[in-house]
Amino acid sequence: MAEISLRKARMIIRGILAKGREMELKPLSVVVLDTGGHVKAFEREDGAAPGRFAIAQGKAYGSVMLGMAGKAQMARAEQQAYFMAAVNGAYGGQVIPVPGGVLVKDKRGNIVGAVGVTGDTSDNDAEAAVAGITAAGLEAEA
Amino acid sequence: MAEISLRKARMIIRGILAKGREMELKPLSVVVLDTGGHVKAFEREDGAAPGRFAIAQGKAYGSVMLGMAGKAQMARAEQQAYFMAAVNGAYGGQVIPVPGGVLVKDKRGNIVGAVGVTGDTSDNDAEAAVAGITAAGLEAEA
Amino acid sequence: MAEISLRKARMIIRGILAKGREMELKPLSVVVLDTGGHVKAFEREDGAAPGRFAIAQGKAYGSVMLGMAGKAQMARAEQQAYFMAAVNGAYGGQVIPVPGGVLVKDKRGNIVGAVGVTGDTSDNDAEAAVAGITAAGLEAEA
Amino acid sequence: MAEISLRKARMIIRGILAKGREMELKPLSVVVLDTGGHVKAFEREDGAAPGRFAIAQGKAYGSVMLGMAGKAQMARAEQQAYFMAAVNGAYGGQVIPVPGGVLVKDKRGNIVGAVGVTGDTSDNDAEAAVAGITAAGLEAEA
User: Which SUPFAM superfamilies match (chains A, B, C, D) (predicted)?
Assistant: First the structure.
């Protein structure tokens, strides 16, 4: 599997939203990007703020474009804020370097896409992301 | 219903994709925007080109921001190309003024969002959009 | 009077909206810019599409920045579309070169600002603009 | 009330400007945005600097797009400067994360828009905003 299918993308989103309800999180927004950083699927729950698409996308976009998930990006931003700022310049301001951006891999470890979740705390966003990806039979790197 | 719900947005997307298969169209990409032009849901079928999100969004965005669906935008562009070009400048280049951008209204005629469909001919995109919106129990203005 | 006052800007907007209701136009959006092209006041009537601020501003902005009202801009665009496109490049895409952009002058003929009206046909937008500016005791160049 | 009306927007602006005069603040600029972040009404008092529209809008825009008022945005910026910088990249540089951006809610707690006030200290801007929103019979979250 070189590229995530729409069927899998839907499974991931439904799994994440189900996990969010189970954890009693605030309304979530979830994007699934392909290996080129392009949107495959997105859903924003009722009650979520209108601007959440850009935040979800920014978490996933940086993950897939750098091959580095949100937690690693945040660590780098804490150490070298100017580096992540410069990355954002190069990427047109599309990167949100915090947890909730999660790489999606197949069973052989190949990256097949990335997920971005936003709406609750960054750590809760990431936890829900991992649960949904795992439930869809894929591997998550948060 | 002042704002389209995620449940309705999903129904619209599924209806449009079903219609696309029935019409034997090329793989479609479908976005549902809220009344402020913000993404509520999106799906891109397997086999569709990676850049289709922006085209779908551009069709729907102009529709909701101007309160004028794709066919009316195209007519205006045919008459006054410089006007639609100028509108696009004002909207940051986000408008695609062709059929496939469709306003979604409730039974009382209030706009509750907009749909953008891309992948086949613009007219086929618009036909599938109308079918999906109607199947979800809402009114379409193409 | 070198610069339009907020009191006069309010009078202009109220006069235009009153004229719009008298003419039975669609819901209007009206901006008043100062002599530097900066927003002094704006109102969008209930039922107008959400993106109307940018259209109103674009009509007024080109008027004041070029010292040329909407009708003259449109004539130029009809003759030399590439010229108005180039102007828009220079002005960051902020110009909408159609009627409804109207210069506001004091009794001695000095420009004190510009008005942008959008919502109905461009000609009706311009007619309402002139009526409101005149009712506020100022001169209009449409 | 799903969306703020022009009548309410005017009441809010007048209330804020009245409060500003009562507090003897510097000239204020006040924007009211709808739930999609689009301008509903704006006024800039005589004597205010020309660029105040963008500052007022930036305070209100971030509030409504993130569903998080100016004080909460400032707290986040103090803790994680790179996060708010990244959010701003995703939102095209339109966010001003300081007090004076205030969410407007109806009596049931639904967000119906946002207000941005600028001209004096951020805290004074926010105090005037809350006073004007409350005087218009709505709820404020600063």
Answer: GlcG-like
Q: Tokens 């603040």 correspond to what residue?
A: D25
ipTM of the complex: 0.96
Of A38, A43, A51, the CB nearest to B53: A38
Q: Indicate the pairing of strand D111-118 with strand D29-33.
A: antiparallel
Q: Which residue has the tokens 């996990």?
A: A19
Detail the DSSP E strand segments found in A62-125.
101-105, 111-118
D6-35 pLDDT tens trace: 999 999 999 999 999 999 999 999 999 999
3-state secondary structure chain C: CCCCCHHHHHHHHHHHHHHHHHCCCCCCEEEEECCCCCEEEEEECCCCCCCHHHHHHHHHHHHHHHCCCHHHHHHHHHHCHHHHHHHHHHCCCCCCCCCCEEEEECCCCCEEEEEEEECCCHHHHHHHHHHHHHHCCCEEEC
Considering only CA atoms, which of B103, C44, B37 is closest in space to residue D36? B37
- Name which of C87, C88, C118, C123 to mutate to probe chain B: the one with the most chain B Cβ atoms within 10 A of its Cβ: C88
The answer to whether the beta carbons of residues D124 and D19 sit under 8 Å apart is no
Structure confidence by residue, pLDDT tens digits, D94-115: 999 999 999 999 999 999 999 9
CA–CA–CA angle C102, C108, C114 (5° rounding): 20
Read off the DSSP letter of residue A136.
T
**Nearest by Cα to D81 from A97, B109, C36, B2:** A97
Identify the bridge partners of residue C42 per DSSP, sorted by sequence position: C31, D42
Q: In D23-106, which residue ranges form alpha helices assigned H by DSSP?
A: 52-66, 70-79, 81-90
pLDDT tens digits along C49-71: 999 999 999 999 999 999 999 99
Contacts of D130 (CB under 8 A, 6+ apart): D102, D140, D142
Tokens standing for residue C6 = 């907020």
- Give the residue carrying structure tokens 């004229």: C19
The SS3 assignment for C24 reads coil
Tokens linked to C53? 């601020």
Residue of chain A whose alpha carbon sits nearest to that of B33: A50
If one counts every other C-beta atom within 10 angstroms of the C-beta of residue B92, the result is 11
E strand or H helix at A44: strand A39-44
DSSP conformation letters of A117-130: EESS-HHHHHHHHH
Write a three-state SS string for chain B: CCCCCHHHHHHHHHHHHHHHHHCCCCCCEEEEECCCCCEEEEEECCCCCCCHHHHHHHHHHHHHHHCCCHHHHHHHHHHCHHHHHHHHHHCCCCCCCCCCEEEEECCCCCEEEEEEEECCCHHHHHHHHHHHHHHCCCEEEC
Nearest to C88 among B67, B80, B86 (CB): B86
Could you give the count of Cα atoms lying within 13 Å of C51 in the half-sphere of its Cβ? 24
- Which residues does chain B have within 8 Å of residue D2's beta carbon, measured at their own beta carbons? 2-3
**D140: helix, coil or strand?**
strand
- Read off φ and ψ for residue B37, nearest 5 degrees: 85, 15
Domains (range + CATH), chain C: 6-21+28-43+51-138 (3.30.450.150)
